[in-house]
Amino acid sequence: MCKSFNAFGIALDGLPIIGVLALATLVMAFLRWPWLAVFFLLATAFTVNFFRDPERIAPDGPGLAISPADGKVVKISEMEDPLTGETRTAVCIFMNVFNVHVNRVPVSGKISKIKYIEGKFINASFDKASTDNERNLIQITDGDGATWTVVQIAGLIARRIVCRAEVGEEYARGQRYGLIKFGSRVDVYLPRGYHPAVTIGRNVLAGQSVIAEKQD
């Protein structure tokens, strides 16, 4: 599945916000209000940085799962999969406001389920964010029939989760499928046979860093 997701290296969802801030900068400059012009210029620069969407090349090879998000691994633990109810190993990645916030699928496969859950907006680095915060869940069925659950979790500042995937669509490993605006977290629940290839505290890149490997 190929969808238009960015323009000039910027996520499409960010273009309206960037446009408004850039226009405000010009208006303040025209009115000769320098402090407000500087404020909106800095806000524009921050927003451009936040919505940047660089190209990434996913690693080749069987039995690999890549990170769905840029950020830091804050938790690796046995947790209840919110879609299947099974206890699985979860790899949790926290994104601060300076990370790229475009999300990518960790493995190739078909989108078999999508579920949105309303919730709170507590700090996404806290454990209870996985169960209390607003979140969007997708299930991916890979070529071996194994299922993966990927959870986009809104954070303290985040107020909108974007998911462009639809049930039945096929995605390739590392392909973009959504984003979360302004600070958030993504949890990946691994199927049996896969083990984490990262440690807590590791910084990872969406679509590029291997977070799990299949072991016989």
List the helices and strands and how they pair.
Elements: E1 6-7, E2 10-11, H1 15-30, H2 34-50, E3 64-66, E4 71-80, E5 87-95, E6 102-104, E7 109-117, H3 129-132, E8 135-141, E9 147-154, E10 161-163, E11 170-171, E12 176-180, E13 184-189, E14 194-196, E15 203-204, E16 210-214
Antiparallel strand pairs: 1-2, 3-16, 4-5, 4-15, 5-13, 6-12, 7-8, 7-11, 8-9, 9-13, 10-12, 14-16
Helix pairs in contact: 1-2
What does this entry look like structurally?
There is one protein chain. With 216 residues, this protein is an alpha+beta fold. The protein folds into two domains: 6-50; 64-214, Distorted Sandwich (Glucose Permease (Domain IIA)), CATH 2.70.70. Helices cover 17% and strands 37% of the residues. The strands form four sheets. It has an eight-stranded antiparallel beta sheet with strand order 11-7-8-9-13-5-4-15, with no helix packed on it. Helix 1 runs antiparallel to helix 2. The longest helix has 17 residues, at 34-50.
List the keywords.
three-stranded antiparallel β-sheet, 216 residues, 37% strand, alpha+beta, Glucose Permease (Domain IIA)
Please summarize what this structure is.
Helix content is 17%, strand content 37%. With 216 residues, it is α+β, with helices and mostly antiparallel strands. The protein has two domains: 6-50; 64-214, Glucose Permease (Domain IIA) (Distorted Sandwich).
Give the overall pLDDT as a whole number.
Answer: 88
Task: Kindly report how far apart the N and C termini lie.
Answer: 30 Å
Low-confidence stretches: none
Which bin fits the share of residues in helices?
10-25%
How many helices in DSSP terms? 3
* Total strand segments: 16
| The CATH architecture of the largest domain | Distorted Sandwich
User: Taking Cα atoms only, what radius of gyration do you get, to the nearest Å?
Assistant: 18 Å
Reading the helices and strands in chain order gives EEHHEEEEEHEEEEEEEEE
Q: How would a textbook summarize the main sheet?
A: 8 strands, antiparallel
In CATH terms, what is the fold-level topology of the largest domain? Glucose Permease (Domain IIA)
How many separate domains make up the residues?
2
In the CATH hierarchy, what is the superfamily of the largest domain? Glucose Permease (Domain IIA)
Main CATH class of the largest domain: Mainly Beta
Structural class: alpha+beta
Strand content: 35-45%
Tell the overall outline.
Answer: elongated
